[in-house]
Design goal:
The protein is an alpha+beta fold and about 100 residues long. It has one domain (about 10-95): Alpha-Beta Plaits. Helix content is about 35%, strand content about 35%.
Length: about 100
């Protein structure tokens, strides 16, 4: 029997004026994630008050296992995008599903 994937629910608080840069970061992060067997299963953007300075985006992501998730988080290629991430994402929360 195949082991279940590690599934996480990730909530990101994003600067609305940096949406294009956030989308760029997200594409690169997803590519790096796939190199570790991870994938974004679902994305829901919660715009809320469109005149507000931020919005939230909720991702359901999965990895083959815990070591794959940690390898992604420690991948130097992800670190190459750290400045862009810090400019666009104000807060990140994640919980195991």
């Amino acid at each position: 029997m195949e082991e279940p994937r590690l599934t996480l629910i990730v909530t990101l608080t994003v600067r609305r004026d940096a949406t294009s840069d956030f989308d760029l970061f997200e594409r690169h992060a997803a590519a790096i994630m796939s190199g570790h067997g991870g994938r974004i299963e679902q994305v829901v953007r919660l715009d809320g008050d469109e005149s507000g300075a931020t919005f939230r985006e909720v991702h359901t992501v999965s990895f083959p296992d815990e070591p794959s998730f940690h390898a992604y988080r420690n991948d130097p290629a992800l670190g190459d995008w750290k400045d862009l991430r810090e400019r666009t994402i104000l807060h990140t929360e994640f919980v195991r599903a």
